[in-house]
Amino acid sequence: MTGLAVDDAAWASAWRRRSPADKLLLCGGLVGCALALPAWPGSVLVGLTAVVLALGPARVPARTFGRAVRWPLAFIAVGALTSVVTVGTGGLGWAPDAAARAGSLAGHALAGSAAVLLLATTTPMSDLLPALRGLRVPAAVVEVAAVTYRLLFVLLASLRTIREAQTARMGYSTPARGWRSSGALAAAVLTRSWDRARRMQEGLAGRGMESGLRVLPEVLPSSPAFLTASATGLAAIVAAGLAA
Amino acid sequence: MHIAEGFLPVTHAVGWTLAAAPFVVHGARQVVTEVRERPENTLLLGAAGAFTFVLSAVKLPSFTGSSSHPTGTGAGAVLFRPPVMALLGTIVLLFQALLLAHGGLTTLGANAFAMAVVGPWAGYGAYRLVRRLGGGLLPGVFAAMAVADLATYVTTAGQLALALPDAETGVPGALVKFLSVFALTQVPLAVGEGLLGVLLFRALTVNARPELERLGLLAAAPEPTR
């Protein structure tokens, strides 16, 4: 357990051993369809496909998927509602095509979010980062991102431990104490991150690794059957979306 | 407040990505140079990125009774400078999209422009202005964190207004709408983030003064006279 439910789901997913490139192709295709096809039926098909694939073959826990979707859902609901309220000389009112406009906007966004979440809940970040090298992102940048990914779990654990200790000492019993504790918490996490980085560097330098953290990437072979099924499914969604 | 996946039309998503790209590439070049000259700083930069991500997990007691989360880019801009934050902020946004489902991949460019470019630069500008006017570190940090948060929110509202203009009053009307709706949470959050920054840096001046001196935020303490 890392403390991030989406990351935990990615490591436990039945698609964990599938090639990241295969999953990127499928999820990228679904995101593209969600953006480009009309909301009805394109976005609905994309959303349903992403949810069915995640909860079915990829075996992502429904609770994790549902909880993760809550955040974008709140933004989408507020944003879509705001976009169809008109501000005119007569005050507030509804846009003439309010329901269709809100539905279309929410449909595109929910379908796109579900497709990204399918990728996120089936592919750990450490599998995706090497793919950035293929996009010609400099090695130093990918390495900084990899260190960020590895350190954030250490810092999140520190954050939870310190907050637990502060809470046990009545650190959040009043708003004033809560503010003081939050500031001390942020400072403690920052100084720990510096200290942890310095000690890791000293440890690596002591082992003669002074030019970067070289690791052997895990090779996850591509599956022709998965690619064929993905291409067929995406083609069917495009055909159905354009035919309506 | 990150724009969710699929919320922006394709042309806007591409446009904001192109707008953010020069700043992120500039930040990446600085990081590449830094890592080439001092490989040991890879870990420090990674730690800075992780801290920015984790800072967004610190709950702030909210004026409305609920809790909210800081963006952390103002503190990052003061500590590590805006060009580096353009890259680190983008990495953090990518992680937030894929680990927390906040934001998205096609909206990464728009979110990066608001949170990793405009926010840090506006916050750092406010910090430099306060210091130049004779303000101390803590007032400067308050200004940096509050302004970075407000600038991010205003930019995001502008991006949404451009993408979703009001049916009657166009982009200006939509801007008023989005600014008003998100002001309910973002204005108190900006003040809260400023306060958190003051408390954070006050604790750092006590516990991590050498690091702040090394980063040039505090003048080196004079050697004690015998």
Major sheet characteristics of chain A: 2 strands, antiparallel
Tell me, what is the CATH class of chain B?
Mainly Alpha
Main β-sheet, spatial strand arrangement of chain A = 1-2
Assembly type of the shown chains? heterodimer
The major β-sheet of chain B equals:
2 strands, antiparallel
Amino- and carboxy-terminal Cα gap of chain A: 45 Å
Please characterize this protein's 3D structure.
- The complex is a heterodimer of chains A (244) and B (226).
- Chain A is 73% helix and 3% strand.
- Chain A folds into two domains: 5-129 and 222-243, no CATH class; 138-206.
- Chain A contains nine helices and two strands; from the N terminus they run H-H-H-H-E-E-H-H-H-H-H.
- Chain A has 244 residues and is mainly α.
- Chain A has helices spanning 5-12, 20-36, 39-55, 62-83, 98-120, 125-134, 139-168, 175-206, 224-243, and strands spanning 85-88, 91-94.
- A two-stranded antiparallel sheet of chain A has the order 1-2.
- Chain B has helices spanning 10-37, 41-55, 73-80, 82-100, 108-132, 137-163, 170-207, 209-214; strands spanning 60-61, 67-68.
- Chain B has a single domain, classed as Orthogonal Bundle (Arp2/3 complex 21 kDa subunit ARPC3), CATH 1.10.1760.20.
- Chain B is an all-alpha fold and 226 residues long.
- Chain B has eight helices and two strands; from the N terminus they run ααββαααααα.
- Mean pLDDT of chain B is 86; it is low at 62-67.
- Chains A and B meet through helix 2, helix 4, strand 1, helix 5 and helix 7 of A and helix 1, helix 2, strand 1, helix 4 and helix 7 of B.
Sequence-ordered SSE layout with sheet pairings:
The complex is a heterodimer of chains A (244) and B (226).
Chain A: H1 5-12, H2 20-36, H3 39-55, H4 62-83, E1 85-88, E2 91-94, H5 98-120, H6 125-134, H7 139-168, H8 175-206, H9 224-243
Antiparallel strand pairs in A: 1-2
Helix pairs in contact in A: 2-3, 2-5, 2-9, 3-5, 3-9, 4-5, 6-7, 7-8
Chain B: H1 10-37, H2 41-55, E1 60-61, E2 67-68, H3 73-80, H4 82-100, H5 108-132, H6 137-163, H7 170-207, H8 209-214
Antiparallel strand pairs in B: 1-2
Helix pairs in contact in B: 1-4, 1-5, 2-4, 3-4, 3-5, 3-6, 4-5, 5-6, 6-7
Subcellular location (chain A): Cell membrane
Protein name (chain A): Cobalt/nickel transport system permease protein
Main location (chain A): membrane
